[in-house]
């Protein structure tokens, strides 16, 4: 009986009802999961990878899907093999959480905001394991310690909104592991997390799998994560399984064209080591001219000096300011015309606040922001409005930054109308040109945002940012939510526009491989300060600050022979950026160790 798989999916077909009639989300998928094995299901959005796993939990029915064919055999330890495709909901209630655990993609929606962490962790233990309240609480404490949450006793009494994204994801993992399930389904569990937290969570899941012998079905679109975690890989494309094999084989010798294209689209750390300037990626199946390096100029377009942005924390009965969040602390840098400066760091390091402060979407406390030689912090609202013609922003979530009730034509035309730059047929023509520019068909102009995929929406956001012919664009995590191949296309598009139009970018990201591909200069942020800044090739080849080195170590590499263990990572928890009102931080002092390569000598708390 040893060769009996824990789960066997055979000939699965899942159908969804739409207004245009039924659509097959999964067409005919079969694969096994063996005891103690990690199977990674990879593919892009819409390939049917999440639907396959939700079918195994029989949750797909709650999302409008219906299993119309195939079998889902699950090996229950004591009751033998059951076909879950036809199981009663009463039986599924016993299996969910108890024998099959699930980690969802978005930890905030997977946790209930009105119950404490302790209440949510003990619920499953009391239902499935019949524990008393005290036993369940003791076990919950053990679980939080296992997933390395600091101060676990205090966390049990807290609510989900009081924890950071990485902490919430650990709680979700602890909940999924609580009843020691035989199979753990992880649906993109690290997509929304920073590199360092992602590295820790992957190492944590790997350790828990080895210690408990749980089989893992891991769903992701990140090939570097696959290389780190998988024993076997299943590649899905448009509802079909196109390739399956051991992880080494898939990476070293992929047979299907789609798998090859997927691997070719992954930016790999170190690819740019011998190149002085950024250049677009070569993509399979996409017509491209020979990629040209983008040099840019040495003319300064933006000069930021000693920028400080703090947010007040209110408290007490009268809601007085009791302390400040030091989001950006004494930051200085320059952006050159036609070049890209990338800011990298973890969530909460202040990189997005820097971008917003430059556009005065949040007001800085002090410092100087010189754009084309003028300090824009002294501008009146009307002068600032004029300057925003040349300073534009692309936000992280294109769905949130587009108006769901307006056609795309009107959304891209809006900036031109606001500034009175075009009207009538000229306006229509200019918008059509912008659609051509971002490689979207003109027929999409009559569509609404919900009718587009994530990558297409992001292109609309780029088209809208380009409408006013800006000189500088702040791109805040502009590609972090996109699939690998879409991300590669959007990055290539941004670099192509930079080469054609001489645009400058301030590129904010936590993905080091993407940053290496697009940047001329790189600044590393930690706790509101720039701890290191310099030319891209120097910062990557010779990271000087301890924090930069830790960040580089955490980057997962798309090569299964270079896996990282928990020992390699060893991160320090980030201290709090909240300080009392009278607190005066030290000034940032830098040492120039190589031409143009500066490292912070002030103690930044790392």
Q: Name the CATH superfamily classification of one domain.
A: P-loop containing nucleotide triphosphate hydrolases
Tally of DSSP helical segments: 22
The amount of helix comes to 25-40%
Mean pLDDT: 86
CATH fold field value of one domain: Rossmann fold
Backbone shape: globular
CATH architecture of one domain: 3-Layer(aba) Sandwich
CATH top level label of one domain: Alpha Beta
Cα distance spanning the termini: 52 Å
Low-confidence stretches: none
Strands in their spatial order, largest beta sheet: 16-17-18-13-19-20-23-22
The percent range for strand residues is: 25-35%
Structural class: alpha/beta
Taking the sheet with the most strands, its summary is: 8 strands, mixed
Count of β-strands: 23
If you compute it from the alpha carbons, what radius of gyration comes out, rounded to the nearest whole angstrom?
25 Å
What does this molecule look like?
- The protein has 606 residues and is an alpha/beta fold.
- Among the domains are: 106-178, no CATH class; 302-390 and 470-600, Rossmann fold (3-Layer(aba) Sandwich).
- The strands form four sheets. It has an eight-stranded mixed β-sheet with strand order 16-17-18-13-19-20-23-22, with helices on both faces. The protein has a six-stranded mixed β-sheet with strand order 6-7-8-3-9-10, with helices on both faces. The protein has a five-stranded antiparallel β-sheet with strand order 15-14-11-12-21.
- β22 and β23 form a beta hairpin.
- The model has no long low-confidence stretch (mean pLDDT 86).
- It is found in: Cell inner membrane.
């Amino acid at each position: 009986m040893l060769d009996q798989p824990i789960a066997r999916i055979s000939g699965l077909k899942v159908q969804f009802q739409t207004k245009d009639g039924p659509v097959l989300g999964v067409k005919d998928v079969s694969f096994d999961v063996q005891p103690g094995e990690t199977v990674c299901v990879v593919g892009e959005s819409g390939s049917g990878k999440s639907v396959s796993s939700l079918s195994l939990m029989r949750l797909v029915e709650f999302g409008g899907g219906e299993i119309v064919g195939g079998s889902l055999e699950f090996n229950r330890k004591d009751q033998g093999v059951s076909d879950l495709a036809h199981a009663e909901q009463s039986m599924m209630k016993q299996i969910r959480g108890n024998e099959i655990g699930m980690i969802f993609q978005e930890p905030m929606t997977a946790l209930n905001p009105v119950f404490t962490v302790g209440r949510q962790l003990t619920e499953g233990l009391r239902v499935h394991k019949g524990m008393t309240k005290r036993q369940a609480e003791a076990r919950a404490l053990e679980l939080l310690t296992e997933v390395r949450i600091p101060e676990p006793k205090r966390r049990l009494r807290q609510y989900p909104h009081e924890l950071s994204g990485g902490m919430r994801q650990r709680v979700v993992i602890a909940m999924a592991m609580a009843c020691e399930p035989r199979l753990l389904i992880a649906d993109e569990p690290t997509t929304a997390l920073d590199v360092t937290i992602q590295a820790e969570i992957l190492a944590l899941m790997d350790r828990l799998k080895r210690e408990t012998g749980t089989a893992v079905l891991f769903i992701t679109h990140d090939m570097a994560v696959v290389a780190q975690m998988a024993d076997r890989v299943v590649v899905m494309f448009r509802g079909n399984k196109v390739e399956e094999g051991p992880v080494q084989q898939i990476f070293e010798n992929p047979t299907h064209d789609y798998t090859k294209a997927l691997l070719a689209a992954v930016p790999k750390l170190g690819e740019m080591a011998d190149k002085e300037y950024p250049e677009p990626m070569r993509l399979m199946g996409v017509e491209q001219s020979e990629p040209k390096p983008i040099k840019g100029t040495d003319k300064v377009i933006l000069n930021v000096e000693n920028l400080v942005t703090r947010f007040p924390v209110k408290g007490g009965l009268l809601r007085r300011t009791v302390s400040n969040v030091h989001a950006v602390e004494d930051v200085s840098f320059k952006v050159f015309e036609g070049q890209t400066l990338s800011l990298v760091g973890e969530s909460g390091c202040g990189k997005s606040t820097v971008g917003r402060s430059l556009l005065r979407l949040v007001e800085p406390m002090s410092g100087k922001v010189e754009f084309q030689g003028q300090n824009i912090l002294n501008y009146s609202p009307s002068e600032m409005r004029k300057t925003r013609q040349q300073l534009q922003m692309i936000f992280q979530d294109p769905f949130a930054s587009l108006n769901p009730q307006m056609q795309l034509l009107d959304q891209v035309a809006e900036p031109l109308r606001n500034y009175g730059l075009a009207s009538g047929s000229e306006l229509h023509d200019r918008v059509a040109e912008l659609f051509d520019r971002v490689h979207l068909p003109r027929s999409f102009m009559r569509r609404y945002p919900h009718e587009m995929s994530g990558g297409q929406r992001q292109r609309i956001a780029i088209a809208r940012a380009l409408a006013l012919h800006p000189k500088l664009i702040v791109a805040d995590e502009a590609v972090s939510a996109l699939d690998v191949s879409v991300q590669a296309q959007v990055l290539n598009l941004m670099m192509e526009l930079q080469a054609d139009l001489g645009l400058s970018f301030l590129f904010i990201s936590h993905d080091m491989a993407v940053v290496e591909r697009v940047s001329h200069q790189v600044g590393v942020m930690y706790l509101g300060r720039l701890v290191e800044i310099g030319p891209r090739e120097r910062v990557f080849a010779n990271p000087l600050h301890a924090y930069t080195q830790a960040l580089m170590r955490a980057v997962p590499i798309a090569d299964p022979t270079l896996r990282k263990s928990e020992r390699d990572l060893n991160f320090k928890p980030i201290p709090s950026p909240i300080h009392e009102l009278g607190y005066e931080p030290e000034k940032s002092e830098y040492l120039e160790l190589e031409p143009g390569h500066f490292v912070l000598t002030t103690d930044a708390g790392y």
